[in-house]
Amino acid sequence: MSTSTSPRRRLVTVLAAAALGVGTLVAGGPAQADPGPPPSSMASMGDSITRGFNACGFYFDCTSRSFSTGSESGINSHYLRIRARNSAINGKNYNQAASGAKADDMPGQATATVGRNPQYVTILIGANDACTSSESSMTAVSTFRGHIDTALATLKSGLPNARIAVISIPDIKRLWEVGRTSGTARTAWSLFGICKSMLANPTSTAAADTQRRDRVRQRVVDFNTQLAQACAAYGPNCDFDDNAVFNYPFAFSQVSGWDYFHPNAAGQTALAQVSYAAGFNW
């Protein structure tokens, strides 16, 4: 499917984290292979988080601030951390993500990524599959898993020796928790129609709204379980972050002031640190 750039679909990913009492999800599978030396090339797959959307201006991608392949020193991305150890990677940081992407876009991104022939690939996808215009329009768990399996099979066939880092989806309920008392955040959420499945009626404490938010959050938990299982099935060259990103307590100050939804530079910096440390960590 195409990667739509409509406002509703572009503005549907954010750094967020778990509230207290998060249950433990399935871990990332078999023992990780020896990561070997730092890679000499890398690529990223995903959505607007990986594109750095709204991280340096209003309503456009800012790939230099991507937590994965970004080149801005203040972010200290995966790419820059690896380059500090292996200068051969310089300039070989390919951002194949697309703002607005969902799991159904991953097979296409995987094909494009294989064409780059990277030694290392990061994947962060799924927030848009839960953050939709309504609860009923969220991606089914089985459908989500099918797209992930297809994408990983493409990577495994085309890049058999590459290391694959699968990163957990942030807990989008955390955004509601830290932003619901902000009038400007609520205005932005309403104006742009952001993540209505979670953020509709943000000040409501009615049982129907409380239960809806919990169900949407559970869908993220279910997606992360599928990511963990799919990575485990891939084999030791795939590392799941064991929900490090899902569990990290991101703050409202790490959310973009342009839309009160996407991660700002501080959020991208935190994501780089958490996800890199939880991965191959060269």
TrEMBL record:
It comes from the Bacteria. Pfam families: Lipase_GDSL. The keyword Hydrolase applies. PROSITE patterns: TAT. Keywords: Hydrolase, Signal. InterPro entries: Ester_Hydrolysis_Enzymes, GDSL, SGNH_hydro_sf, TAT_signal. The keyword Transcription does not apply. GO terms for molecular function: phosphatidylcholine lysophospholipase activity. This is GDSL-like Lipase/Acylhydrolase family protein. Coiled coil: none annotated. SUPFAM superfamilies: SGNH hydrolase. Residues 1-33 form the signal peptide.
